[in-house]
Design a protein that fits this description.
By secondary structure, the protein is α/β, with parallel strands linked by helices. The chain contains 19 helices and five strands. It is globular, with a radius of gyration of 24 Å.
Amino acid sequence: MQSKEAKEKVDLVVAKWMIDASIPFNAANSAYYQTMFDATCSFGAGYKAPNFYDLCGYLLTKNVKQVKNFVNSFRTTWKETGCTIMADGWTDQQRRTLINFLVYCPRGTIFLKSDDASDASKTAKMLYKLFREVVLFVGVENVVHFITDNVANYVATGRLLEREFPTLYWSPCAAHCLNLMLHDMDKLDEKECAAIVQLTEPLVRVLRIVDSDERPAMGYLWDSQFHKNLHAAGYWLNPAYQYNSLDLEKHRHATSGLLDMIERYSYANANLMSNLTGEMRLFRKAEGDFGRVSAIRDCDVMLPDEWWTCYGSTTPNLQKLAIHVLSQTCSAFGSERNWSLFEHIHSKKRNRLEHQKLNDLVYVHYNLRLQQR
């Protein structure tokens, strides 16, 4: 055992390095912090730390390879539950337009890549080419939802994606739309305070739903502001609403959205379409396993996608569709929450690195955090 003085001497050296390199002290909270020192000590005396060129060279490459294996393990989940691609554009300190691509599924959100889209962001045609490559990489059969901001060129790009890939649905980021609504309310006259309070309360409640990490938001968001077929289908397939008599009137409108989705989902497969519409009746009337006491009781307890996994086996076609719909998110919060991370890695101190190196740094950093959970 080393003396207290010997340990303090080592601690001082570690602290000086962190201070000199401007490393935040909360870096000590990283799951890899103590692991680093354990590995160093196990090597023994004489260990030489990697230099700058090693860190941004072969060691970064090896880390990227390891993280890619971790990310690829998500493909099994994407196939089972479907996934949502989130594309979020932002401007770095060099005034470049960067687009971060992330993929959401109930297991977690992984960072895919960051593209310099300074030129591509100007037209829908160029954005479409960029977005299409991401869809093909993730797998058309896996992508249920594509989320972007609702600026004109992104909206046009979303329409082009839907036209080429019938089973894919584009929608604007729900959190972004709500933020715009709240921003518009700021323009109202302060004598209108009572109206502002009445409008704000439901918007904040919905914002909490779409910004939650605890459950997929699809199935809980559907009204006149977010009346998309995917949202309507999620609402109709959510057992918490389907078996609530107070919501029966809303089902009448949501049904059309689900039927539109079924027509696109089944393509020209008439048998699949008939099976899906027939199975809708079993779910609506709570027949088979849907009518179990436990199924009705669990409507408000279990997450909708988990509920379908447990009780939807008597309607296998609708079960698969329901799980794919109800496993999606409605906003790009996973990307927006990491603006500070992206900005830090793309800072002036690191901009001497080529864009691919920066992209690799973000890729490893973000997904290592997910791996720690």
